[in-house]
Amino acid sequence: QNISEQDSKEKLNTALQIMKNAVSLSPSNHQHWNALGVIASHSLVAQWSLAQHAFIKSLHVEPNNAIAWVNLGSLYFINGNIMLAHSTFERAQSCDPGHVQGWVGDALVAETIGKEDETKNL
Q1: pLDDT in tens, 50-69
Q2: Inter-CA distances, 61 with 17, 83, 96, Å
Q3: H/E element, 38
Q4: CA-to-CA distance for 48 and 45, rounded, in angstroms?
Q5: Which candidate, 43, 44, 87, 93, places its Cα nearest to that of 67?
Q6: 78 by DSSP, 3-state: which?
Q7: Structure pTM?
Q8: Is the dihedral of CA 5, 10, 13, 15 positive or negative?
Q9: Which long-range contacts (CB under 8 A, 24 or more apart) does 43-51 make?
Q10: How many CA atoms lie within 13 A of 114 on its CB side?
Q11: Smallest Cα–Cα separation from 74: which of 95, 45, 52, 54?
């Protein structure tokens, strides 16, 4: 079944409201904050400031969460903040060297800024 873009927007906005409620009920749950950031950063929602805030709140609660670092780095990357993306992907790598997305994100950064040699090493 094909879901229309309007249906997707409605479902995402419902999910956004649910996650806002979840973080208000449990502000010390880093997973709730991360989920709020993921929903807010979806292209059909595009609430970049809220997404950034949510990822940062998640990281304040759980600073060694490679997933949240990668999500924040991805948000920075898609919004053209390449050097911030680089530093957050590096932080993800240091938190969990086995979390591949941190390495992939950093390789995309290196490719974007034209450091092919560095991309091969990543």
Answers
A1: 999 999 999 999 999 999 99
A2: 21, 24, 17
A3: helix 30-40
A4: 9
A5: 93
A6: helix
A7: 0.89
A8: negative
A9: 44/5, 44/8, 44/9, 44/12, 45/9, 45/12, 45/13, 45/16, 47/16, 48/75, 48/79, 51/75
A10: 0
A11: 52
- Six-digit token pair at 16? 């956004």
Q: What are phi and psi of 13, to 5 degrees?
A: -65, -35
Read off the pLDDT of each residue in 85-112 and give the average, rounded to a whole number. Answer: 95
Contacts of 56 (CB under 8 A, 6+ apart): 72
CB atoms within 10 A of CB 108: 19
How far is Cα 30 from Cα 102, in angstroms, rounded to an integer?
19
Give the integer Cα–Cα distance in Å for 110 and 108. 5
